[in-house]
Amino acid sequence: MISALIHGIVSGLLVFVLIGFSLLGILGGRSIAFPIIGAVKANEGVVWAYQLSIEFFA
């Protein structure tokens, strides 16, 4: 979720050049879909790494 926060801040800044609106929409959809996919994978016993996540603690 820290990566989503960082992406949201960058997208929020890009709203001033009009590309941020579409990026915020994509980020919103991704923030809903990825936890659901992660839950389904965890139920199957598979460790699933979020796409486009920043590796803070590698």
How many domains comprise the coordinates? Answer: 1
Query: What is the tally of beta strands?
Result: 0
H/E element sequence: HH
Q: Helical segment tally?
A: 2
Largest sheet composition:
none
Structural class: mainly alpha
* Average residue pLDDT: 87
Which of globular, elongated, flat, extended, rod-shaped describes the shape? elongated
Low-pLDDT stretches are none
User: What is the radius of gyration computed over CA atoms, rounded to a whole number of angstroms?
Assistant: 13 Å
Percentage of residues assigned to helices: 55-70%
Query: How far do the termini sit from each other?
Result: 16 Å
Beta-strand content bin = under 5%
How would you describe the overall organization of this protein?
The protein has about 60 residues and is mostly helical. It has helices at about 1-15, 20-45. It is elongated. The two termini are about 15 Å apart.
Question: Would you spell out the secondary-structure blueprint of this structure?
Answer:
Blueprint: H1 2-14, H2 20-43
Keywords:
transmembrane helix, 2 helices, elongated, single chain, 58 residues, DUF4870 domain-containing protein, MamF_MmsF, mainly alpha
Short characterization:
The chain is mainly α and 58 residues long.
